[in-house]
Amino acid sequence: MAGIKALVGLSFSGAIGLTFLLLGCGLEQYGVYWPLFVLIFYVLSPIPTFISRRFSDDTESSNACRELAYFLTTGIVVSAFGLPIVLARTSTIEWGACALVMTGNAVIFLTILGFFVVFGSGDDFSWEQW
């Protein structure tokens, strides 16, 4: 039952993060949908970790595949936080929209991290079942 509660909590926090993102785009004073391009980063961020967990045999020690996955994931996350700042600096979006998108980024990436913490272990209820 703990897995179901975690899944519901992660779903709720993901919905909150997407709400912040959509508020940054859809509010009448902002009205520009360029920040929705961070959705690409949300999809790309877990892919290196999924690949490295699939190909690495040991879970205790560090290896090159896992370190490369951490590096690529960090680059994707930093890019997701950098895109709204670049858009705000070029006056494509307002700074208030940038703040809402950054808040949504923080919530979504913490949700993704929570997914890996809750379902990443090798116990009987893991993400590998999905």
What this model shows, in words?
The chain is an all-alpha fold and 130 residues long. It is built from 5 helices and no strands. It has helices at 2-26, 38-44, 47-55, 64-89, 95-119. Helix 3 packs antiparallel against helix 4 (64-89). The radius of gyration is 17 Å and the shape is flat.
Summarize the structure in short:
This protein is mainly alpha-helical. Helices cover 71% and strands 0% of the residues.
Which helices and strands appear, and what pairs or packs with what?
Blueprint: H1 2-26, H2 38-44, H3 47-55, H4 64-89, H5 95-119
Could you name the ranges where pLDDT drops below 50 across 5 or more consecutive residues? none
Indicate the percent of residues in helices: over 70%
Largest sheet descriptor: none
What structural category do the secondary elements indicate? mainly alpha
Oligomer: single chain
The SSE order reads HHHHH
Number of strands: 0
Q: Average the pLDDT over all residues and give the rounded result.
A: 87
- Rounded Rg: 17 Å
Distance between the termini: 17 Å
Principal-axis shape = flat
The total count of helices amounts to: 5
Percent strand: under 5%
Provide keyphrases for this structure:
130 residues; mainly alpha
